[in-house]
Predict the 3D structure of the following.
Amino acid sequence: MELWHNDLLSQGITACQDLYFSGQPHQIEAILPLYCSQTALLSRQSSPIQQEAAKLASLAHLLACELFADRENFGAAEQAGKTAFMYGQLAGDVNLQVASLIGLGNIAFHRKLSSIALHVFQKAISLMDHATPLLKGRTYAGIAEVYAMRGQFQETMRALGLAYQYFPLEPEKDPAYPYLRASRYALYVFGDAQSRLFLNQPKEANEALIAMEKETNDPEIEPITKLDLLYYQAEVQIQKREMDQSIIILTEAATLAKDLGSRLYFDKLVHSFNELNVKWPKERRITELEELFLPWAIELPDS
């Protein structure tokens, strides 16, 4: 109880969220575990503040899940996501539970574990009766890309239709937005463009990216979203066999990924770079970029 100060803890977690999405993940790596442990400790104690503490604990672990996944520490990310879900249950907050499942589904998706990702998103759908429109739309966008990864065209199109149906026109006004941070960008890019690329439809994927740019400027204000957009733009150009544009975009994206410390996106970009090598073997402009895409050195802690 002596650790409890609702406003202070809530504002601290919100500040961590803002730092992460504004492109300063390094700033929260040391302090976020403190919020996770402090709120978790309060949540485990039977008291009048237990449910509110559990809500904050869920929020803190949701952000930890996002951060660990970006660092490709998938084991820690999965544990954080499961912990966020558990505290969402303790708080009696279905929205936090669905948000946690979205995070866990994304981890399985990044690991190309499509069966697990599908199961997790289906579980999220089973909880949707009391979820906000944004969480519903984001869940269907997520399951659409999983179906597309699995080559299930009809299921992809159905899920995309539901994503467009549920996704609010002003997601920033949705109660879940402060921690989900899913603008219309998530609908057009994660749901539509990503699915179209899996289905080898670069023209339709590019149309989704163009539609996104008419509705939101997230890539201009959130560096991690800018990096994400560059990745998809590169994939479109590669599928269209536009070598020059692919090289320009991949170069910018790889540099930004290193600046942000995003191993997740850097490894995605390495895969894209390898696609260039396959399509245009021994092309000088491509081989000159090989050093940029070398694996990062692993920093060991001081002994």
Observations:
- The first helix runs from residue 6 to 21.
- Residues 95 and 131 are 5 Å apart (CA to CA).
- DSSP finds 16 helices and no strands in the chain.
- Residues 298-303 have pLDDT under 50 and may be disordered.
